[in-house]
Amino acid sequence: MKQEHKGNKSYLPSKLCVACHKEMTWRKSWEKNWESIKYCSEACRRKSKIS
Ligand SMILES: [Zn+2]
Prior knowledge:
Order of helices and strands: EEH
Bound molecules: zinc ion
Low-confidence stretches: none
Number of strands: 2
Helix content: 10-25%
Mean pLDDT: 87
Strand content: 5-15%
Largest sheet: 2 strands, antiparallel
């Protein structure tokens, strides 16, 4: 089930984690570096550096 309503007031940007491909939704703490966010968590960041 996918929701793709445009004009939704509570819409937040989202993108996929490059490590686990889970969708991550914009967070306030990512406000300043959202463009460079690639991983949903520190765990994913580390995991992807290993391989
Ligand atoms: Zn992830």
